[in-house]
Amino acid sequence: MGSRTSFFISLSIHAVLFLSYYLVRNLNPENFSEQIKLSLTKGQIPSVHFSLPKSSGEGPDTSSDSGLAGTPEAEIERFKNEIHFPPEALEQRLESDCSWEVVIGSNGTARKVTTIKPCKYKVFETQFRRSVSSWKFQLPEGNIIIIPVSFRIESDE
């Protein structure tokens, strides 16, 4: 391929990109960074990626928990993901399975916590009660939920 042909192709690509940039920017300037991406790497063919902004053109959220949103099951999972493994139990490699019944009070707080299956070690009970005392559930007052927690140390072995 001759140098004139290469120059013409390069000029054409740049002109299309330049016009696309201004056309897209003028249509919706606040979302421009989400709509077009140009990746150039030395010695490779340039790649252009176009995409719609996340807020338009999509249906409802299809995440795995979206069908459970606002349900006791979803709240239990949200809460369980916020319980931290006590550092002192980790140092001693302690593990236990426990369960609690929680009565939801006003403003989503835990009004009453009853142990259903006691923990093997008190450190887990303390950690759970500390976590539940500061948690705000998104459930109506009077709901009763059972929260099973498995304090386990996962290893790569």
UniProtKB/TrEMBL annotation:
One of its GO terms (biological process) is transmembrane transport. InterPro entries: TonB_C. The chain crosses the membrane at residues 6-24. Residues 51-71 are annotated as: Disordered. Gene3D superfamilies: TonB. Residues 82-152 form the TonB C-terminal domain. Keywords: Membrane, Receptor, Transmembrane, Transmembrane helix. It holds the Pfam family TonB_C. This is TonB-dependent receptor. It comes from Leptospira hartskeerlii. The lineage of its organism: Bacteria, Pseudomonadati, Spirochaetota, Spirochaetia, Leptospirales.
